[in-house]
Amino acid sequence: MIHPAEQLTLPNRAAAPPPARFPLVAGVAPLAAAGVIWAITGSAFSLVFAALGPVIAVASTVDARRTRRTGLRAEARAYAAAVEALRADVAARHETLRQSAWARSPAVGTILGGADDAGRWHRAHGPTVVLGSGEVDSGLRVNGPGDTAEERELRRWAATLSDAPLAVDPRGGIGIVGPLPLVRAFARGLLVQVCFAHPPDRCALPAEPGAGWEWTAVLPHAGAGPPAQTVVVTEGRVPASPASGADPLVIALAETAGELPPGCATIVRVHGPLRAEIIASAAHARATRFRPELVSTEDAARFAASLREAAVAIGLVRHARPLPRSVALGELHGQGTASAGRGLEAVIGVGEDGEVSLDLVAAGPHAVVGGTTGSGKSELLVTWVAAMAARYSPEQVTFLLVDFKGGAAFGPLRALPHCVGLITDLDAAEAERALRSLTAELRYREEAIRSAGARDIGEIVPAAALPRLVIVVDEFATMLDAFPGLHARFVDIAARGRSLGVHLILCTQRPAGVVRDALLANCSLRVSLRVNNRADSIAVIGTDGAARLAQDQPGRCLVDAGAGIRPCQVATTLPGDISAIAELTPAGTPSRRPWLDPLPARVTLRDLRAAVAAERDAGREADREGYLLGLLDEPDRQRYRVARYLPERDGNLLVIGGAGSGKSSVLDALAANGSPGFERVEFVAPDVEAAWDALAKAHGELAAGGTGEARLLLLDDLDSLWARWEPEYQMKTAELLAGLLRDGRAYGLRLVIAVQRVAVLQGLPGLCQATLLLRMPSRLDHLAAGGDGALFDPSLAPGGGSWQGLRIQTPHPGPGARPLAAGTPTPSILDCAGTLLVVSAAPGRAAGMLRAAPGGRRTVVEISAPTPGRLARIEPGDAAPGTVFVGDAESWQAQWALMAALRAHAVIVFDGCSVGDFRMISRRRELPPALAPGRGHAWMLCPDGTLGRVSLPVAPRLE
Known about the structure:
By secondary structure, the chain is α/β, with parallel strands linked by helices. The protein contains 25 helices and 38 strands. Helix 1 (24-41) runs antiparallel to helix 2 (52-104).
């Protein structure tokens, strides 16, 4: 019985209703009624009702019988549906019971196929073996009142579970009777199950059963002992003596039952490959037929080999030479032996058969290393790299190290001349840059191999012409968690790396589900230190052995290099060992680096000039013209390159960057470049008046046909200046800028404009042919400025940004004054000779300043001085030469005759007036020059129509 009896109930079959009887009274009653009516009325028509009685009676009888038949059919259908539902329920329960039974007692075929490796030596149920598949009691009971043949068959079917395992306890001994070939095949299946269920340290096969059983010598149980249980397989009456005092588990084979040794609790007769029966058993009824579990000698031999491999991997099979608890790298005899071969063989530790060496070329081309925290992963990687460096020169192999734990473990390896880079804790941009550099390295190697006329790196002569590159990645799972897209890049490297001489060593704490099949397919070399669960061990080496390694033994690992799994104790490498290897490495040409460090945070013009010289010495084409703009990072070409700004080629340049991003330094550096091809470079100070004058002057020169010289105009903080101009000046500035940016090229004028944001000057990017984007305060600002989201980095140093889709570091200009554009000096109002007409928003203040000014000897007349009821009118003839007339716009309107008479030969000064006041008094539509607040400047309109600025005297300080 598989489960305690579970009760099910048959549906009740409804009882058949009695047949309908003829309604005699209902048929006679109408006859009597019709006779009474005829007797009373004498109407013959009433006799018609007499015929209705028999008609109604017959109709009622027919209807009752029809209703009875319909009900019987409906009840039969309901019963059939209920029985069918019961059958479906029983079938589902049978399937569940069957699956559960096979899960508890797996078939020999399941064990041999490896589908139940997780249950090897781990099963918690009692020691049972499966004889085969047949019928057993299901534990289901169907109750109910019915006793038809169909219902009896349903009860029998529910109580019987077919194709279920027939399991027995082998400890009482199992006797097998039948033709010897079939009996031996059946016994092999039983022995496979026993060895699968019991580990070698608890169960032993002390002696080989004899001819035909040679495969058992490979079992890890063979010769083991003294265990708690021995297994004896015998063909005859007398079993071999047990290896211990415990009763042996006997599997006896014979052609007849009389030849079996006495005491077998279970006896089976095998009739054929598909039929056997139980002769005696405490668990099953006599004569129970079943399909036996037969195993061929070849399948049994393969099982024995795989079982021994698993036992060796976890240390259940002991050898004469135990592994040491620790070993130093310097103690290994294979270290320090230089090799000129094309492989990468290196001794990393000690195994049961001596020193263990790994060869990334022969056993690779790539390797996967698994191990939990504290298992010695980092020590293994350091030792492996150091061992390769000790045997091969930098002309033969180089290392690129990637550590997502911060780089502390790989730090000492940087002393090796073989080390061409150490990458630690990348952000998204740096990770993408690293992968682009590696992709470029693959292209470089493809071209180098093609140029050498070879098909792969192994055919290049000499071998040192292209060293192999080993990329070591610690915490591979952590890297993929941060950047899932990198897995596809590593798959590409793994697929192409063999022929190109690029090898991967990928190390992770969680191998299961992280290193996918597409990558594992190219990682033939597997190493697993202790892991936390069986799944991680199986993912790396195909067995669960690494999950059984001792926690107190760091550096103990299992190695699968294609010739079976073998244990190894990894050597310990000290910083002194690495230093000694570095000192013994012959000096040579520095190794080519596939990965360049990120751009420096500070670059000077001197650095750029040195880089230009290096480019020319290397034979690389370098632009000889243009301004040195910065140092470009080209990971796709594995190099830095000097970027130049050539105004004739690149047009107007827009520099965008947040506060402190280095915008002004870019303009300073351009100015400090000198004038390569341009006769004049003018830096316009970020000043309201200076910027306006420079734009107006440049516009005037263009209107006059240009100056005939190439000129570069640098405008800093234009958006800040824009915010300080009045709306009319903003509109005019936009008009001036558009004209200069659009038409300046024809006259040799180029503009470089620096702004923080382009939101207030939305048309500006469209008029500038080139854009240099520096650090922005947010990703939104970066994108709004037209930047590539992948190049946004809020941590960039001042001067860092992007140029033409690449990362750039612009130069710091160094000491020196800016070459500011020459401005027109502002004359003082006190220097103006002749009559002055001052239109002031505060005439009293203006008159007081003029009177109190040093050297102020002129006559100051306030035309806005009030008189009772009206303004005093002044006649033109009252004005003496040199007189200063001061009034507000309203007063001058009232004194318009005076204004009209004097303006032809007098200077008009507008102090604190609005543009509207200026236009009303001057009768001119042009905008006067912009005035910076707080400087004491005013507009000055000369008699000849010249419009400019004039400075007012400073008001005296009150003591």
